[in-house]
Design a protein that fits this description.
27% of the residues lie in helices and 16% in strands. The chain is built from 15 helices and 21 strands. The N terminus is likely disordered. It binds beta-D-glucopyranose and magnesium ion.
């Protein structure tokens, strides 16, 4: 007898507007088969943990067939699972279970470039200059008498020239690693292919897409020089990221692509969404990616980039909320991801960094809109700064000395010995080693431990889901507060929730906002109010 289990997914097509999305870096989340690499079955086994944590959706980083030169952001087959992560049946089992638990699944799509092992690129290399096979990528002749100079001065985000020469003398463009050739998005076959890939995953039930390098697909006509780069003048082009316009980013025509994608998403039931990883010169230009005929969200990296100061947070929050009013979509908040140093470390590392990170979590989760968590931030994990160089795998490391491996270390689940329950019982393998200090940070060590970061996240997420004020998508009201203190209010009927964050260098007495619901540090009673320690945050409730 087949029993049909009603899915507890809400039918709300606007779920993404206020969701908490948990980013799973698949390779480092949970390893079910003991090869030291996280996999889809591992995620499936840990879904109850995520459900209990209180998130609404997962964003999975790429798990597609890939030579893994850039951690899977180099895709060789967009319609299959890399054997290291499992297979399509594992994906289907995982998404079925996730939906049964009320968790939505967002997958990463990487349209700017393929892997150099993608059949299109191997065909392009085998074909002649000017051939239809080459036309799907950006091949060009070099400069100089013998074409030995790259076609222009563009620089790879990972360092070095953005062009690589092939044996017949032509060059191809790669904004990232040479193993990630850029596609030619002016080619109709490229557009048709990705529309089909979107449908492939939508047909398998995915609830949304995170679009990698969403601002990069269209390059300015004629491929004009930028005018400087680190090879010629020592100034890196990527320093303009988000501060200026580069001829390979944020070109107006990129919006045509999203205007074609949106009807595809809208043709499926249940509120399928897309979030852009996009960098633009101004918040106004970033907002152009969002709207009823383009994408649902774009990450607001300004919040991630804000320094630990009340002014800096207030400024980015106001800007982001103002932009979201213009486009009619609440903004996204993010503190960490797989490309950036973990925020515990950015905020000062050690005990101070952790205190601040916990306060920042309460700040973020009290804001209207969608919050993205990065796996392990609920455990208060710091960046691993002392990974041995020979273990680092980030392709940027060899070219620039900068490495993103320190935020990608497999997360600790339980036990006394590394890798702390990342794999099945007894497994000692993990593709990057966890530091011994992580024993005390494991899920098991923090579960039920009063004051642990994990219990703080659980409590905050529980309140966020049930408190009427936090469901509201309207704005926030800033309150008068002393220097270095952020305080704002959200209201529903006669219930008021106040979030206060003390970023000053002395404890402050907070009075008159009602009962504390959750705090990132211990509050003490003082002068009839509550004493909020330095670098901490609290939510109060009043009726
Ligand atoms: C991803 C990175 C990746 C790059 C190239 C980024 O935006 O988040 O991890 O290296 O795109 O695909
Ligand atoms: Mg595995």
């Amino acid at each position: 007898m087949t029993v049909s289990i009603p899915s507890p997914l809400t039918s709300d097509a606007d779920w993404w507007r206020s969701a908490v999305v948990y980013q799973v870096y698949v390779r480092s989340f949970a390893d079910s088969d003991g090869d030291g690499i996280g996999d889809l079955h591992g995620i499936r086994e840990r879904l109850p943990y995520l459900r209990e944590l209180g998130v609404d959706a997962l964003w999975l980083t790429p798990f597609y067939t890939s030579p893994m030169v850039d951690g899977g952001y180099d895709v060789a087959d967009y319609r299959d699972v890399d054997p290291m992560f499992g297979n399509l049946a594992d994906f289907e089992a995982m998404i079925t279970d996730a939906h049964a638990l009320g968790l939505r699944i967002i997958v990463d799509i990487v349209p700017n470039h393929t892997s150099d092992q993608h059949p299109w690129f191997t065909a392009a290399l085998a074909a002649a200059p000017g051939s239809p096979e080459r036309a799907r990528y950006l091949f060009a002749d070099g400069k100089g008498d013998d074409g030995a100079q790259p076609p222009n001065d563009w620089e790879s985000i990972f360092g070095g020239p953005a062009w690589t020469r092939v044996p017949d003398g032509q060059w191809y463009l790669h904004l990232f690693d040479p193993a990630q050739p850029d596609l030619n998005w002016r080619h109709p076959e490229v557009r048709a292919e990705f529309e089909d890939i979107l449908r492939f995953w939508l047909d398998r039930g995915v609830d949304g897409f995170r679009i990698d390098v969403a601002h990069g697909m269209i390059k300015a006509e004629g491929l004009p020089d930028v005018g400087f780069n680190s090879m010629t003048t020592g100034r890196r082009q990527s320093e303009l990221l988000g501060k200026g316009r580069l001829p390979y980013f944020d070109q107006d025509e990129v919006h045509d692509i999203y205007r074609a994608w949106r009807p595809i998403l809208d043709s499926y039931p249940g509120g399928r969404m897309a979030v852009a990883e996009a960098w633009a010169e101004t918040p106004q230009r970033l907002a152009r990616y969002i709207g009823p005929d383009e994408l649902h969200q774009a990450f607001s990296f300004d919040f991630l980039d804000a320094t630990w100061s009340a002014d800096s947070f207030r400024k980015v929050i106001d800007t982001a909320l103002a932009e979201s009013t213009i486009v009619g979509a609440p903004t996204t908040w993010v503190l960490s991801n797989h490309d950036r140093q973990r925020h515990v470390t950015r905020y000062g590392d050690g005990e101070i960094g952790l205190r601040r990170a916990r306060a920042a979590a309460l700040l973020m989760l009290a804001l209207p809109g969608c919050a993205y968590l990065y796996q392990g931030e609920e455990l208060g994990l710091p960046e691993v700064l002392d990974l041995p160089d020979e273990l680092r795998q980030d392709p940027a490391f060899l070219r620039t000395g900068e490495s993103r491996d320190g935020c990608r270390v497999p997360i600790p689940w339980s036990g006394e010995l590394a890798p702390y329950g990342f794999g099945p019982a007894g497994s000692e393998l993990s593709w990057l080693p966890a530091p011994t200090t992580w024993r005390a940070l494991s899920v098991a060590a923090q579960t039920g431990t009063p004051g642990s970061t994990l219990e703080l996240y659980r409590a905050a997420l529980r309140i966020r889901h049930t408190h009427p004020t936090l469901a509201d998508l309207g704005g926030i009201t800033w309150l008068e507060s002393g220097p270095g203190v952020l305080a704002f209010q959200r209201e529903a009927g006669d219930t008021v929730l106040t979030c206060a964050v003390n970023i000053s260098d002395a404890p402050v007495v907070i009075d008159g906002y009602g009962t504390p619901l959750v705090a990132s540090a211990t509050l003490t009673e003082r002068d009839g109010g509550h004493l909020l320690p330095v670098d901490s945050a609290v939510w109060f409730e009043r009726h």
